[in-house]
Amino acid sequence: MRIGILGTGTFATALATGWTRAGHDISIGGRSPERAEVAAKASGARARPLPEVAGDADAVLLSVSWEGIADILEAAGAPTGSLAGRPLIDPTNAVEHGVGVLRTEPGRAVADQVADLAPGAHVVKALHLFPSTRWTAPASSPVTVAMCGDDPRALTIVGSLVRDLGGVPAVIGGLNRARQLEEVAGFVIALAFAGVDPQQAVPAVPTA
Ligand SMILES: NC(=O)c1ccc[n+]([C@@H]2O[C@H](COP(=O)([O-])OP(=O)(O)OC[C@H]3O[C@@H](n4cnc5c(N)ncnc54)[C@H](OP(=O)(O)O)[C@@H]3O)[C@@H](O)[C@H]2O)c1
Description:
This protein is of the alpha/beta class. It has a single domain (2-199), classed as NAD(P)-binding Rossmann-like Domain (Rossmann fold), CATH 3.40.50. The protein is built from 7 helices and 8 strands, in the order E-H-E-H-E-H-E-H-E-H-E-E-H-E-H. An 8-stranded mixed sheet has the order 3-2-1-4-5-6-7-8, with helices on both faces. The model has no long low-confidence stretch (mean pLDDT 96). NADP nicotinamide-adenine-dinucleotide phosphate (NAP) is lined by residues 7-12, 30-32, 35, 63-68, 71-72, 91-93, 128, 131-132.
């Protein structure tokens, strides 16, 4: 697949690396062309100017700090429909560092804001929970990637990209579940910063 990555930081570079290894064609860009070149060199991706990153991509990953979401989507032409009809993966965490409290208004998810800023794009909340290193280092056992979104085809495409990283996709519902997924990240971050292993804070429930 052709994948466009908006953002050039740690997470963008890690996923570009994982997807390049899986044989995908990755374009990467951010507000700094120099940092895009560095990320491209480190991951095997191609650096492109922001307006061209999404170009002909089959899927797009939004990988910036939550404060930069509106700026980068604007630079990529999303408000005027450049991402319409395409899966737009939102892994962002708008979470107060070290505390885990969400910075979004009550009842709203970042993914809802992303959908508003990218009309017509098929937003899928996914990949926000595990650290980037999970997708670049060899793993002893696969992890489950809970995700949600409204478009079945987009969910299938993102699910396949999750598998390519070594994860197992689990769709929990439509984009109206995104706030819940984002709260889970806040919960995990809060426990981790309190010195508690989050896996010890949830019950082992037998599956049906
Ligand atoms: N790292 C992880 O393990 C991980 C795991 C799950 C989810 N995430 C999520 O992934 C996203 C990226 O995280 P990261 O770890 O890659 O962070 P990072 O290394 O700090 O990179 C942040 C990226 O956001 C860009 N950015 C910030 N403000 C911007 C603006 N106003 N306009 C354009 N670009 C802007 C930065 O550009 P500059 O370089 O130009 O400043 C950089 O490309 C975050 O939302 C994070 O919550 C990260």
